Amino acid sequence: MAGGRPGQRKARKGRASVSLARPSEWERQMSVSVPAGAGQLPGEALYRMADAPAADLRVVLDGLDDVLVVVGLDYRIQQANRAAQRRSHEGGEILGRSCRDVFHCGRPCDSPDCECPVPTVLATGDAVKVTHIHDGCGDEPARHVQVVASPLRDAAGRIIAVIESM
Q1: Which end of the chain has less neighbouring CB within 10 Å, N or C?
Q2: Torsion angle (degrees, nearest 10) of CA 64, 68, 70, 76
Q3: What is the model's pTM?
């Protein structure tokens, strides 16, 4: 590895990255950009995660209390952790359903109080942070939700989906 140690952070303009000593198949297939300083894991933790089987990574993601979803270019949920499943309004399977049906009672995110971050991520290629007011469905009260959305890129650097954490 040129000029670095395993797990050593390498600064890039506007981005943070970690160099891994042994790239895994998962790392070769997926490339995720995150904003600089956005709550990164220590290099050793990333190294262990990248080397872990997919099932182990699923356990980690399902252990998060925060909602984590991968939203496709068609605004349908491609992947989700258990917290996302628990917080969906309608219950049932959420994969393949539109994010607005799952989290917004079918209402689109197009008001000043509920800006959808996906178009901005797709247009700029950068991560964005927005605050939504999720109207309650039925008897649920409205609540403020901070959404961090980041592009998910393929090996060629093309955006293939958007990762949302809330």
Answers
A1: N
A2: 130
A3: 0.63
Q: Where are the alpha helices (DSSP H) in 11-136?
A: 25-29, 43-51, 54-62, 82-87, 99-103, 118-124
Percent of the chain with pLDDT over 70: 55
Considering only residues 25 and 49, tell me which one the structure prediction assigns the higher pLDDT.
49
Please state, in angstroms and rounded to a whole number, the distance separating the CA atoms of residues 156 and 109.
30
- Which is nearest to 127 in space by CA: 23, 17, 35? 35
- Cα-based distances in Å from 22 to 34, 50, 69: 21, 9, 27
3 or 62: which leads in pLDDT: 62
For Cα atoms 98, 103, 164, give the angle at the middle one, nearest 5 degrees. Answer: 80
